[in-house]
Write a structure and sequence with these properties.
This protein is an alpha/beta fold and 449 residues long. It has 15 helices and 20 strands. The strands form three sheets. Strands 7-8-6-9-10-11-12-13-14 form a nine-stranded mixed β-sheet, with helices on one face.
């Protein structure tokens, strides 16, 4: 653990991770100062907490008071090229992510799970399996708690499963998980990475840059970006695959998942024993099975936990059946690849709610799938016109102002045996606080029918 007593620490961003970092810094004897350009009205809950904790803050703008510090902790929502961080770099002030800062004070085993898709499901499943098997495991990062909120609570023999975004990895220095997993890499967040996928990939690969021979890296053997990414030869690497048998790792064959280590089969369960369905979820389950076996968890309990996992809110979440029309909330689908997986999960005709804050989306990869699966698109958000322009020649597309408008229209148009799916392929920040808020609005609209 680092000694930060008396250090002046500026925290950029007064949302979940920023609040957690400021509270942790104060608890450890540092002097935090929080700065957020958001309005006082928008930040009123955070401000109330800061006043109660005696933490100094500013809102409405970033002033030069930020730079009177020993170092800066930045929230993942703040772009690296933002003026406030660029000015700090010009002043030679060290900048750390909340992930990096929190890791200094966590004594337990850290599992860092990253990738473009499947992070939330895999992290949640990991926590479920480990806790069911009797090994106390916290959920944190992009889901559950901010890492800074629970870092001090994790004991040496306990674990923390972190859903880790590329944004959190952008400002690490010593972050060193016991197990890291890169589930897959497809284009996403390119608006934050100069529309250069290699910049995005490089960010993801940082998850294992400090790992050594005592640590483990889990990779997707089927991902086209996996070959050649292991520059750190010290870390122990295991793979998972939907397509081929492996000597070290987990693979799918004959509707069963097996885990093999040094050619010896240590675990097998049928996909019919897993509550999650779809090949993408079998891949997620394989990553978790590898983690569980690295900690020698009981095979019977692992299988039971895989079977009783309830799923994840906002990820292909069934909401309601109305006169034979099924409504699904997939608000967590914030990129095109996620929509591809979602559409492959249905054989019925789909009314698709698509759009939001565009992140440089390229819709060609789902064009044929949309044409074969989707009966109509309701286009929403700031990218609605882009969605309309791309799809309207091959699929019916209607511009809608709100999710309520979409649900009212779908309730009139969808027939028994069809599906209404919110799977927007975009970020939510043009209309909502976050994807959870968007999913909640969708569910409320459905449940009002």
């Amino acid at each position: 653990m680092k000694n930060i007593q008396g250090k002046k620490i500026s925290v950029i961003g007064a949302v979940r991770s920023g609040i957690g970092a400021a509270k942790l810094a104060k608890k450890l004897g540092a002097v935090p100062f929080v700065s957020d350009s958001g309005s006082r009205q928008k930040l009123q809950d955070a401000i109330k907490l800061f006043d109660e904790e005696g933490i100094k803050y500013e809102c409405d703008e970033h002033t030069d008071a930020i730079y009177d510090c020993d170092f800066i902790i930045t929230s993942p929502g703040v772009p690296s090229d933002s003026p406030v961080l660029q000015k700090a770099l010009d002043k030679k002030i060290k900048i750390y992510s909340e992930l990096e800062f929190s890791s200094w004070f966590c004594k337990g085993n850290v599992f860092s799970i990253t990738g473009t898709n499947g992070k939330t499901t895999t992290t949640t499943l990991c926590g479920h399996v480990f806790n069911y098997c009797g090994l106390k495991t916290y959920l944190a990062g992009n889901i559950g708690y901010a890492f800074s909120e629970i870092a001090l609570d994790v004991k040496e023999n306990e674990c923390v499963a972190l859903e880790t975004s590329s944004f959190q990895l952008d400002n690490i220095e010593e972050f060193k998980p016991k197990i890291s997993a890169i589930l897959n890499i497809t284009p996403d967040h390119l608006d934050r990475y100069d529309n250069n996928i290699q910049n995005y990939i490089n960010s993801k690969l940082r998850v294992f840059e400090n790992q050594d021979e005592n640590d483990y890296l889990i990779l997707n053997a089927d991902d086209k970006h996996t070959p050649g990414i292991i520059s750190n030869k010290k870390v122990n690497v295991l793979y998972f695959s939907l397509q081929k048998e492996l000597e070290n790792g987990a693979y799918l064959k004959n509707n069963a998942i097996s885990f093999v280590r040094n050619g010896i089969n240590e675990f097998t369960c049928g996909v019919n024993e897993i509550s999650l369905k779809g090949e993408h979820n079998y891949a997620n389950a394989m990553a978790v099975i590898i983690m569980a076996k690295l900690f020698n968890l009981d095979n019977k309990k692992i299988t039971q936990a895989l079977g009783n996992f309830p799923g994840v809110e906002h990820r292909l979440e069934f909401v309601r059946d109305i006169n034979g029309v099924k409504y699904y909330n997939d608000s967590k689908a914030t990129n095109v690849d996620s929509v591809w997986y979602a559409l492959r999960s249905f054989d019925q005709p789909v009314f698709l709610i698509l759009g939001g804050k565009d992140k440089g989306n390229e819709y060609n990869q789902i064009k044929k799938l949309v044409e074969s699966k989707v009966k109509k698109i309701y286009a929403i958000g700031s990218s609605a016109e882009k969605v309309f322009n791309f799809f309207h020649k091959s699929v019916k597309v209607e511009l809608k102002g709100t999710i309520d408008d979409c649900i009212i229209a779908a309730n009139k148009e969808a027939r028994e045996g069809e599906v209404v799916l919110l799977s927007p392929a975009c970020a939510s920040f043009d209309m909502f606080d976050n994807f959870e808020h968007r999913g909640k609005v969708f569910k409320e609209a459905v449940n009002k029918l």
